[in-house]
Amino acid sequence: MPILDTPFARLELQRQPPRRDDPLQAFDAADEYLLQHLHAQGLPAQARVLVLNDAFGALACALAGHARVTSSGDSHLGWLALQDNLQRNGLAADAVAFVPASAVAEGPFDRVLIRVPKTLALLEEQLIRLHGRLAPGAQVIAAAMLKHLPRAAGDLLERYVGPLQASLAVKKARLLFATPETKPAPRSPYPSRYRLDQPPIELANHANVFCREGLDIGTRAFLPHLPRNLGDARVADLGCGNGVLAIACALANPEARLTLVDESYMAVQSAEENWRAALGARPVEIRAADGLAGQAEQSLEVVLCNPPFHQQQVVGDFIAWRMFQQARAALVPGGALWIVGNRHLGYHVKLRKLFSRVEQVAATPKFVILKATR
């Protein structure tokens, strides 16, 4: 397992979800660069440090015991990785406080360390929330690999924090230093909202929700073909996002019992708000989770899924394959996984390895809707 060797600690770190012979590591040169800079600069023992978007806990674990560390991000898998990596390295579970991105880390903070996220709307919301939560003399430092560092990230830091200075690149990583200055309290543009004609609902979307400004084309293709006449079936929306598939399914199946899960805290927050707006007090379970990993075996009749094809900046079908495996375990014999996917991904081939029958329900030039029966 790769070792992160820093001036603060020598750490054995693992990504989440774990993979046998994982070709990827839980840290990169941007983490190393940031930690080396902090050490060279000098970090006061009681400094209050906020770490944002620390994908697998590398920064927080390295600084645990050297400062008062709060970590905040939008990934439940990131939280699981943080807990696992603290334990893996003999650190107390409470050595780092964790605040999901759906909540606000109160501060005040002396140092704010930011891994620039893939979704710049998330970065913008996080920077807006820093207003009034920085201690006098606070420093805000963002880090990223050059290939994942858009110019707009620096623009956001300058707009919401203050004047910006960029470091030299080291091992294809760069640091951005924003000097806090007094600014008027900003107004957040999040959540954004859009309306659907069918079903006629309005959807709120917090900053890190996929396709925040409008319905994604895969879901649009899926909606007319959602299962009907389900009676009181137990249905899960796996990777629910803003909850639109589950809400549409619930409206078409008044007795169905719904569970919504997503690993994004902001997705779960959005789904909860949207469910209540569309369905009031109708019973539902909505949770942040590692997919259906915590779902009892053979406890569902139907799983709906619009699977992602990336984890952060890493593109691949590993997460989708894992979702299919989880769905199979959670479904009763005869239960079905309904998915939408890009034609070129060839999900029908993978699904046939897990399910007894796979049929194409519908298709568009770009997408297929598949039903895989256990």
Strand content: 25-35%
Task: Work out the helix count.
Answer: 10
Shape: globular
Whole-number total of structural domains? 2
GO molecular function: 23S rRNA (guanine(1835)-N(2))-methyltransferase activity; nucleic acid binding
Organism: Azotobacter chroococcum NCIMB 8003
Domain Methyltransferase small: 202-371
Enzyme class: transferase
Task: Describe what you observe in this structure.
This protein is α/β, with parallel strands linked by helices. Helix content is about 25%, strand content about 30%. It folds into two domains: about 5-180, Rossmann fold (3-Layer(aba) Sandwich), CATH 3.40.50; about 190-374, Rossmann fold, CATH 3.40.50. The chain has helices at about 30-40, 60-65, 75-90, 120-130, 150-160, 215-220, 245-250, 265-280, 320-330, 345-350, and strands at about 5, 10, 50, 70-75, 95-100, 110-115, 135-145, 165, 175-180, 190-195, 200-205, 235-240, 255-260, 285-290, 300-305, 310, 315, 330-340, 355-365, 365-374. Strands 5-4-3-6-7-9-8 form a seven-stranded mixed β-sheet, sandwiched between helices. Strands 14-13-12-15-18-20-19 form a seven-stranded mixed β-sheet. Helix 4 (about 120-130) packs parallel to helix 5 (about 150-160) and helix 7 packs parallel to helix 8. The protein is globular and about 65 Å long. The two termini are about 35 Å apart. About 45% of the residues are buried.
